[in-house]
Specification:
By secondary structure, the chain is α/β, with parallel strands linked by helices. Helices cover 53% and strands 15% of the residues. The chain has 2 domains: 124 residues, Response regulator (Rossmann fold, 3-Layer(aba) Sandwich), CATH 3.40.50.2300; 74 residues, Arc Repressor Mutant, subunit A (Orthogonal Bundle), CATH 1.10.10.
């Protein structure tokens, strides 16, 4: 099967480099290119690609929005993110939008080619360092069911998050400290507020002081 590729990147030089690399693959054909979300939608309808290489930073909207729109209209088209962004916020947003792969631009060419082949046959390819984030997020989400319940029905992990929140730490700071994603921190925060019937950070701080978790 020949893989029909659409290249979406707002830098013509990047697209040119990708064409040079991928045109040399016997089972790949470049059927179109785009420099914006609007062009990507038009080219997807015109060229009918199997796989789209999608940058995240585009001039009109984001590659995340483009991915979501394309997957709604063309659900069989596979999308691989190829981007300079390696932080978990973009990573999880692209996966939620429907991407079948995520490769940083610093990756070796072989990594990109492997990702394209995987996407084309319906598999998912994640760059190793980013796949680790997904595993950590999954384990963190699964852990509460197994954790020992303590402190007014909170799990041990929720207790940890509560302590950090009461001390004024941001979601990103807590995520970094506990080696979980900000998304997971937010989920824990929502569970804490619900279980303790709290409605604001000030309520949370007062609770933590009353329970002796932090000092006034």
């Amino acid at each position: 099967m020949t893989i029909r590729l659409l290249l979406v990147d707002d830098h013509a030089v990047v697209r040119s480099g990708l064409k040079m690399l991928l045109s040399g693959q016997k089972d790949m054909e470049i059927v179109g290119e785009a420099g914006s979300v609007a062009e990507a939608l038009t080219e997807t309808e015109r060229a009918q690609p199997n796989v789209i290489l999608m940058d995240i930073g585009l001039p009109d909207k984001t590659g995340i929005e483009a991915t979501r729109a394309i997957k709604i209209k063309f659900p069989d088209v596979k999308i691989v993110a190829l981007t300079i962004h390696e932080d978990e916020e973009y990573f999880f947003q692209m996966l939620n939008a429907g991407a079948s792969g995520y490769v940083p631009k610093r990756a070796a060419p072989e990594e990109l080619i492997t990702a394209i082949h995987a996407a084309a046959i319906g598999e998912v390819y994640l760059y190793p360092s980013l796949a680790k984030l997904l595993v950590q997020d999954f384990l963190s989400a699964e852990r509460p069911a197994e954790e020992k319940i303590n402190l007014d029905g909170l799990t041990e992990r929720e207790h940890e998050v509560l302590t950090h929140l009461a001390e004024g730490a941001s979601n990103h700071e807590i995520a970094s400290s506990l080696v979980i994603s900000p998304k997971t921190v937010e989920r824990h925060r929502e569970n804490i507020m619900r279980k303790l019937n709290l409605h604001s950070r000030s309520d949370l701080v007062r609770y933590a002081i009353r329970k002796g978790i932090i000092k006034a």
